[in-house]
Each structure stands twice: as C-alpha cells, then as structure tokens.
Write the structure tokens for this entry.
Amino acid sequence: MGKTAEDSGDLRGLSDETVAAAVYGSVLGASNAVAWRDRLIRAGYDGVAGKAKSALIGSTPVGAGKAVASSWQGSAGSSDGVGLSAHLSPEGELAGAALIGRHFDRAIYLRSRLIAAQNHGSWPELQAVLPCGARNWLLVSREAEILAAGDDWPSRGRITAPWIAQAIGVADAKLPLWHTLFDEDSPRPALTLLRGEGGRLLMCQAVGGRGERLGAVDGLSGASPSDMAAWRGRLRAVDPSAPAVLVEQLTTGWSDVAADQVALRFGFDPEEMSLLRHLLIEADWIELRIGTGAERGPELALLGQMLSKTAAPNCPEMLRFLAYLMQQTTRDHDIAAGRASPPQRVLSLASGLTSQYLQFGAERGQPVIFVHGIFDGVAAIQRLQPQLRARGLRCLAPLRCGYGGSDSLPSGTDPIDLFVTQLDALIDAEGLVNPILMGHRSGCLFAAAAGRRLRDRLGGVVCIGATLPLPSIGHARALRGHQRALALSAVHASAVLPLVVRSWSRSVRQKGPQVLVSRQIARESADRQLLADPALSAVLDQSHRMMMQQGRGGYEIDLRLAVRSRDMRHCAKAAPTIYLHGGEDTVTPVDKLQAALGSGHANLQIRVSKRAGTMLLYAQPELVFAAIDDLRQRMTS
C-alpha cells in the first residue's frame, strides 16, 4: 500500500493510496479495481512505494523543470515500459510520477487481459484501450455502425440514429456536430469531449488506423483537393467495418476543495487547472486536434505538461483518471459535510434478522469497524471520510438493531449478544482479516465486549471517549437538558422513557442537531468551537434522521443498557485495546475510567489528551489514527 497523506508530508494533499486507487478505478472500473488490487497485495506486487521508501510521492509537486517533453501519447506510455530507472531525481530516487506511472502500466496490462478474455480475441490491437467493468461505452466502425457496447448502452445500430443519440445522452442541439463527427468523409479529431443530457460527459477518441488518424488526418483541414482525394483513397482501402471511434461516458465532479488537492498533488498551475475545469465541467463541445500549424489544438501544450506530471500514458487515460479522481474527491468531501449519503449495504443474519451497515473510507485497505454511540450516531466517522481514504482505511459501520435500516431487537434478546453475532457475521460476509474495532462513546461498551468474545478475529480495539454506566443521579450530574432527563428516566422511571425519548427527538428538530453533542460539552471546553461549523450541523442532522428511520427503539434499548450496573474491568485475554480519552471529559472523568478498567494489563493502554473533552474524535482524529497505526504495527511485529 502506498504512503498516506501524513507520510507524504502534507495532510492537505491526496495520498499515494488515494491516487493509486483512482488509477486502478479509472482503468479497471471500481469492482475490478478492488478485486485485482487485493490479489496484487496478496501476491506482493502492490507495494510500489514500499520499494522506494525515500521517493516523496505527493510531498512535493513535480515541477515543470522535471517534466520531459511530451507528445499526445505522454511521457510514460504503457508501450514504453516505464521501469525502475525512469525519471530519476538527482539523488537517484524514483520521482513520484514514475511510481504512479508503474501503477498505470500494471492497471492497463490487467485491463488488456480482462478485455482479451471478454472479447475472445476480437480486436487484439484494442485490448489495451477498450474499457472494462460496468461502464457505458460504444465501439464504432468507420461506417458509424456500433460494433460493441458496455453496460446498458445500445449494442447494435447506427451511432447517428436519433434513438441511439438520445439513449447515450447527446443533446438535440449537438446532433449536427454529432453527425459530422462520424461522417466517413470528414477528418476526425483525435479526441472530442461533449456535454450530454443531465451533465453527462462523453469522450470520443479515434482508435482505428491510429497512427494515420492521429498524425496526418487531423492536419488535412484546408488541404488542397488533390491531397483530400489522396487521403480518401487511402481510407477506401481500409475495411469500412473496422473499429474507428471509442465513445465512453465519464463520471466526474468538481469542488474547490477537491481542485486544490489535485493541483497540490500534481503541481498543476492555475492555467492547467483552468483547462481541466473547462474540459471536465464547462465545455459543451471541444475537439482536440494534433495536426500542425493552425490546425494544432492550443490546449495540447498544457495537456503535454499535465501528462508529464501525472505520468498517464496518453491523454484519454489522463482525462479519465482525473475525472475519476475529481469525482471521488468531491464525493468524499460531500459525504463528510453531510451533502451526500455514504454507501449502504444490508446483511442477513442466520436468525433471519436484517442488519444495515455503512461504508466509509477506501474501497480496500486495513478494515476498521466503527461502533456508534447513542446520540450522534455515525456523524463522527462520516466527517473523516477524506482522511480515512487518504490513510487507506476501509471502514464499515454496522447499525445495531433498532437503528436505521436494521431490524428491531427481538423481545428478550440481549443487545450485546446480538451485536457480537452481527459483528461476527459482518466479518464473514465482507471477508475481513484482523479488523480493528473503533468504539465511540457508549459504543465502547459493545466494542469492549466484542474484543473479549471475538479476540481471535480482531486486530485490536480502540475505544474513544468511553462512557460508564450511569446507575445513579450522581453519575448523571454532568449531563444537561434532555440527555440528563433521558438518563434519569432510564434509571428511575423506565416506563416513561419512551415519552422522554419522544420529547428529546422533538427538541432536536426544534433546537437543531448541535444539541446531539452540545449537551455533553462542558461550558468552558474548547470543543464548543466545533459547534460553529455548519458542516457539523449538516452531518449530525443526516446521521440523526437515518438512525431514527425505524423510530426510537434503538435509543430506548441503549439508554436502558447504559444505566445498568456492569463490571467494566478489562479482560486480560481480550484483543489488544487502546482507550483514548479527553482530560476535559466531565461526563466520564479520567480517574473514574481508569478505576473501572483496572490496571496491570499488558494488552491495555489508556491514553489521555489533556486538551480534549467529549468531542475527541471530532477535534483530534490524528490521535485515533495513531492508535490504529500502533495496532497495525503490533499485528505485523
């Protein structure tokens, strides 16, 4: 696995893992990328950065002075076989672009093998070009007939037929240009980008007779009648049913934050970023030509520089990669800000119950299982979506019975027993190896129990801001508002707890989602500064609405459990466990936590941040990532 953003020296940038994942995702498709990278890791072929630990991928943008002169095919084409000796810095170290170029080489080779298997040997010259995976694409002949298609696009017919143009999203206003693009007697540009219906981005690249079309054909506009006649004569000698154009749909996005990170990662200057924005989200129709003189596209010089910086093998691969990376990065920040929902899946348990879980972070990497608390749900981990991906952490967040889309807790069932069963089934279903549990607030009770019972299946447990049972009024005095009322009713008036939970839910809607966390923050705590962040309110609101999907059953169950006296002493045979706690946490003071857990355990650490309170995971996530790294190192030592 590549270095993280922190390893690369700039937490604002995109980590090696994020960029490498985008390379494989753009070349192979998301599902193929996950499967093949897992196979590469098991075979020991994915640790490219590990073979050159001193190469500062991502830490320093590749300067223009290091960029080599590039053509349309780029400076690191797969046919050139970028090797370990390519792009050496003065110190003899591999430059970042060369290492990413090796990822491109490997991904394109894998794609060619997948395409060869799918096409059973058809068009062997295009096996390194055709897309794979669940993508919309069309391979079109010189006669504008569709030869092959991907996903749900039409697999037969004439590309200029109105119903096909409509099916792939070509706007009516673009139909004249669309017809000209596939006119056999008209010179085609090497690459065309057009904005389709619904904001779709279509990329059309010439693939047949590649050397002639990309070299000579584009320069014929304005040529003499004799030259044009000679060119048409050469084309007539070519099989009219041969592949000529590949049309594919690109998924992209844009945000200022994502653009800044991409620019920082690759060292793109403002002019290059302006061109990228124009190509990906602004231009309705743009043709890139590689002819000479006036026919040469003015964008080519900038694209050549960008090819050198990204180490992509050619312009279409680079644009597909950057579109994928921009979309991925933009979506990560949208999830973290509550503007988009994280991916969700459903797991069927042997008992017949259904369990919902969410997916955060990278699609592959060290597995982490987040165990949510009562009030803020998954908001704390959702805010860390970009950081989780940057560190190569694949985080799953199962919702306990009674929350979200998970079934209600059956009568008479112990919630901790059922959660351990749910967790065991999740590990099996996802094929997780040594996952690390991350318990948050009241979720630490469940995480600690699982750390004892599933110790042989876990890589360790991190408990953040753990709470202790509240069996008396004295223990609940640090709580305020409805949260205090909830605790007291659970202790002394269980029958009215549903009414209090209903009143609390109404209060959240009236006063805003900040009350989900503000009632636990001491009035003088520095954590209160976090409440001014509008993104926090948005993600808290989204989390609360999702957790309340089936009503208030989950809250009532956890509140009753939270006030039940329980032996909290750490088990010497549990999985290695690290407790992270805030010195300003007045709900569960550090001394009470230490007394409850006991001392003298070799597999237990209690780490205290004096400046943190109940919002430790929100305010100081770097401490959590450091604990996870320590547990990972312990597994390999």
Notes: Residues 1-11, 48-94, 210-223 have pLDDT under 50 and may be disordered. The first strand starts at residue 137 and ends at 141. DSSP finds 23 helices and 14 strands in the chain. The two ends are 17 Å apart (CA to CA).
